[in-house]
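Final paragraph of the annual report: two paired records, presented back to back.
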Amino acid sequence: MSQGRNRVSVVFVFAVIFFLIHKIIPIIGYNTPAVVNIAVLCFLYSYILLNGGFKIIINSGVLLMFGVFFLSVLYCKYSNLTLYIYSILQIVIYPLITIFIVKKGSFRQIQYITLSVWLAYMITAVTTIIGCHYFPEAPREIAAALSSEDAARYHLYMNMNIGSLTYIYTLVLMLPILVYIIRFKAINRFISICCLFLFVTAIYSSQYATALLFMFVGISPFVLHKRFKANTILSIIILCVILFFFFKDFIANIFVYFSSTVQSEILADRFQSFADFLLGGQNGSDGDVAARQYFYKSSFDAFLKSPIWGSFNVTGGGHSYVLDVMANYGLIGLGALVVMYRKIYTLFYSTWRRSDIYGYIYMTFIMSICLAILNPKELFIVHTIIVPLSVQYLYIKMNHNESLVGRK
């Protein structure tokens, strides 16, 4: 993607910032009338399509990313099809915004959008930390369809601006980029270290054990070579697999130690559950690992019932995005997933293979696939907004010696 001249309206840039912020900051998204969201979304599509958007769609092949979403419409998996199509359109706009603004926008416009996104995540990190202090299980309750079960409590959480599962795992995937920013002094060190502190604290406060474990993976580049390559990540994966199979008892004892030292009862239970799983013991029917195994098996069993094209009336366990796609759409769905991730990589990652940041964003890419296997979200905004815009901004800034606010 090449940086073009400033041919993008300021109104469009502000609309993009509003649209993204209302997705990131819960209190804004919750309190913004639906008609405003629809109007902004229509404006974004209209502006892009009337200014070369059709050419961008055809040349980039961006629609190949959305095969899974098209299958869900074809299979009529949702009772309210109109609402679901609207939700898809809110996701499809992400890569269109990125490709359009990078091709036609200026550095300043990329800068304003990128920094607004990061600032929005920092603001929500602060409020999530505060909210979790008073309501430790808030992120979990928000993710568990609380809006329909307890509207009053959901209203409270939204107005306290507490992030849910999607927000927390997005922070996890942003960590490698943040480590790059700190190590290469791409942005003021004090600001970037404060951002790292907020993200890590928010992740810990959410009490998601899987997020906490992946958090350590996300900050691991601090101990790697400054300009590590993709092969380093693959070597680490192989090493982890070997350690898992040959030092299972040792790893289990580490989790037992964690379970006895963390102050959170939720994290302690999950660490103990994982230790029991590694040791081949039982943690009761309510253990987190046992529950995950049950849901994963439900998805895989559904896949085996109709492995080619899935089923119109079978659903997965709801705890693995990849396995649920396989359960719902069979090998056709798995193929759509492969095409989706391949297209994401080609459009937004492979461009930077020769740059210093490539190892860091490649780690984000691999982590996202692992999380899609373990969790029910694909975290599309990371691949199509956060990574490409952040890398584009950092590349231009560092090569042209631009300051944080775009001044020399």
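The closing record of the year follows.
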Amino acid sequence: MAKHTLIYPGHVLNPEELVNFSELDWFARNWRDLGLGESLAE
């Protein structure tokens, strides 16, 4: 499986804001379809 790294300017996203992330059904489905897992270690 290919590994990718997300690179973004620091002012665009504060990782602490992801704590309140709500997973929608369409997001979970697309995430699975891309072959992504629950953690970066997968």
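Helices lie at 25-33. This concludes the annual technical report; the extension proposal builds directly on these records.
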